[in-house]
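Run log // design_07
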């Protein structure tokens, strides 16, 4: 049976989406080509009509997972009142809902270590999407020079990622909730989420101090 180009593209996208969920839930080892193709209603042999190799699928699944997070952050920022955009991103990320749904969550805490061990092509896909994520957070520091905003964005993302890894490791009890709260507090520097400009002023002051002391 012949299928239209649209049908093939839709099937391809469905396979990538399913693979990205499995990847975040169980890592690359959990991706069984036969099972993914069965879910898509295709035979194992049909896989190569869509992907050159299993690594090619993994690369696309990595990129898809990270693109989901980038899009989610942009939407939260756009929908939040001015002055609360960074807090909207951080609070949504450091939530019990995100902690308990790794398959549909951010790829960083689920796949960061795995990406570091992957082949160059997969690492490149991961790094390219990471740059986009950094850019989204850096945009929330519009009062800062570009380099300072980028540095703050990297710090925020690193804090959120690390806290999420620890929270998931701790399970779903009070300790895990405590870690999420600490992650939110650290990512926002413990300040009122409604006052990012105040935070930027403090960051600027700290940067000036570092320049004077050479720290």
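design_07 sequence
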């Amino acid at each position: 049976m012949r299928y239209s180009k649209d049908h093939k593209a839709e099937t391809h996208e469905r396979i990538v989406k399913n693979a990205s969920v499995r990847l975040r839930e169980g890592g690359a080892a959990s991706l069984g080509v036969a099972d993914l193709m069965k879910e898509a209603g295709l035979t194992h042999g049909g896989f190569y009509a869509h992907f050159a190799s299993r690594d090619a699928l993994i690369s696309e699944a990595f990129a898809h997972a990270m693109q989901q997070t980038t899009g989610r952050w942009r939407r939260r920022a756009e929908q939040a009142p001015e002055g609360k955009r960074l807090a909207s991103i951080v609070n949504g990320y450091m939530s019990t809902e995100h902690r308990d749904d790794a398959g549909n969550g951010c790829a960083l805490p689920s796949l960061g270590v795995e990406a570091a061990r992957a082949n160059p092509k997969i690492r490149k896909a991961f790094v390219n999407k990471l740059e986009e994520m950094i850019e989204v957070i850096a945009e929330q520091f519009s009062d800062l020079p570009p380099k300072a905003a980028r540095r703050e964005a990297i710090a925020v993302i690193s804090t959120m990622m690390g806290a999420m890894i620890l929270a998931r490791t701790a399970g779903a009890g009070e300790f895990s909730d405590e870690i999420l709260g600490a992650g939110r507090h650290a990512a926002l520097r413990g300040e009122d989420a409604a006052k990012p400009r105040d935070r930027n002023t403090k960051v600027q002051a700290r940067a000036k101090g570092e320049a004077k002391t050479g720290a």
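The radius of gyration is 20 Å.
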